[in-house]
Amino acid sequence: MTDNAQSVTLRVTDSSTFVIGKMNKDLYQEFKKTLGYKDPNAIWRGKNAKNWDGYITTVCYSQKYCRCSIKKDGVHFPTGLLSRAFDFFRAYGIPVSSIDERSEPKTNSVQISCSDEFQTRDYQEDTINKAVKQQRGIIKVATGGGKTAIGAGIIQKLCVSPFIFYVTSNDLLRQAQSELQKFLVMNGSPLEVGMIGGGKFDIKAVNVMTVQTAVRAVGEKYKKFDDEDEEEKISEELQQKRDAIADLIHNAKGMICDEVQHWAAETCQVLADHSVNARFRFGLSATPWRDMGDDLLIDSCFGKLINEINASFLIRKGILVKPTIYFVHTKKNFDEDVAYNTVYKEGIVTNEERNVLIANIAKNMVDNNRHVLILVRHIEHGELLESLIPNSFFVNGTHGHKARADHIDGMRKKEIPVTIATSIFDEGVDVKPLDGLILAGSGKSQTRALQRIGRVIRTFEDPSTGFVKKDAFIVDFYDHMKYMLSHSKARRRIYETEPEFVIRDFKGEGHASQT
């Protein structure tokens, strides 16, 4: 390729980077591909798009055709992909320089210290130091590895304000606020952490905020992510405070975003674009990737991977317990032309034989003094299982926040032997006594598969009884039926990436009695 460009200058801002210098058509097309991803549904969508190569790019080239929430002129892309852009131009032998117009990284604008309760582990301290040095990026931490503690350490080291810690649900909103206030101190007293969302509006130097509230505050429509069974209702007061919330988002100097795998969604890209003064940006997740193949969109919000702490590493350190995952094989035949929804309904949700099997396994776990969580995808499925399992309670997005909080408190006190829940329990909710898990809902999401295992592998000790949690017993299903079999195989492949996970199979009679 010749006559590409004589030189290129990248003008860097906190949210977007602008390309100064002309590229010929071929080079520009390659640049768009490098800062884009191949649409997994391209073969279907391409039928209606003339001359489309199947790539979705993060590059915009004019205000008229800009896809960003805040429209911009000139060729530009998200600053999280800055290093990828540098690598591209260097690979083509094009001299590339930069003009850094990002906000000055002045720390210590507020005085925050750590409480006596904040005792970091060696890997957490290493991650915090790397994050502060790198200023933005993605941190992969398995469930139970202390994501919020790492976030608190970053906030304390940077000491910039305003700072926002984003979460994806009201349950996580309260949990994150409580943990940050426990870990951080300002002027000798516990740090008062602001809360925006869940009907609350209280802005401080450091704040927790739901993604749903933030997206609506900047004038965009929130779109639920996969399997989300609750949509936050915005109170009238929050509606009236939209401008103040938008100002907070625009002026925030730092942002930490939990469950970052959802930040590839369109609405989360909006928040990254509106955070025009956020020099410091960090994404946290046990599974910072997507099932759709659009992981690059997460990188575009935050930048490169800072550190990776997987479950097996934490198991070897004694921070998590070792799980044994039992795949129970089931079978149901369907005609070739049967649609997915019918297969899921009849093969998973209302499959009496499978549901009775789940009930028997749950009863057996309880008889062996395990505290059990059963995860489903549909409310009807949860109601059916609740009717089959004695002393079980079904919790879902239709329950009020107080009712859910009271239930979780009962689980932590080991007062509730079996909880059945929808996706509200997939992420973040911390109930350490749980040591039995039944994945009743099937599903193809590999990211959610590891998140769900994380619900039951945290260590736990009960000083009042001397009980020490030593292992976790997990039941998943290898459903030999149309559509579902490929989903089961995908989940197994993701479990196999963790060398400390023990995986076994049960085929035929007798598996319900195993513990």
Tell me what the structure shows.
The structure is a single chain. The chain is an alpha/beta fold and 515 residues long. The protein is built from 18 helices and 26 strands. The strands form 6 sheets. Strands 13-12-14-9-15-16-8-17 form an 8-stranded mixed sheet, sandwiched between helices. α4 (122-134) packs across α5, α5 (147-158) crosses α6 (170-183) and α17 (446-453) packs across α18 (484-495). The longest helix is centred in the C-terminal third of the chain and has 16 residues, at 352-367.
Give the SSE map.
Blueprint: E1 8-12, E2 16-20, H1 25-34, E3 36-38, H2 42-45, E4 55-57, E5 76-78, H3 82-91, E6 96-100, E7 112-114, H4 122-134, E8 136-141, H5 147-158, E9 163-167, H6 170-183, E10 184-186, E11 189-190, E12 194-197, E13 200-202, E14 206-210, H7 211-217, H8 236-240, H9 242-251, E15 254-257, H10 266-274, E16 280-285, H11 296-302, E17 305-309, H12 311-316, E18 322-331, H13 340-349, H14 352-367, E19 372-375, H15 379-388, E20 392-395, H16 401-412, E21 418-421, E22 436-439, H17 446-453, E23 461-462, E24 467-468, E25 471-480, H18 484-495, E26 502-506
Parallel strand pairs: 1-6, 8-16, 8-17, 9-14, 9-15, 12-14, 15-16, 18-25, 18-26, 19-21, 19-22, 20-21, 22-25
Antiparallel strand pairs: 1-2, 2-5, 3-4, 7-10, 10-11, 12-13, 23-24
Helix pairs in contact: 4-5, 5-6, 17-18
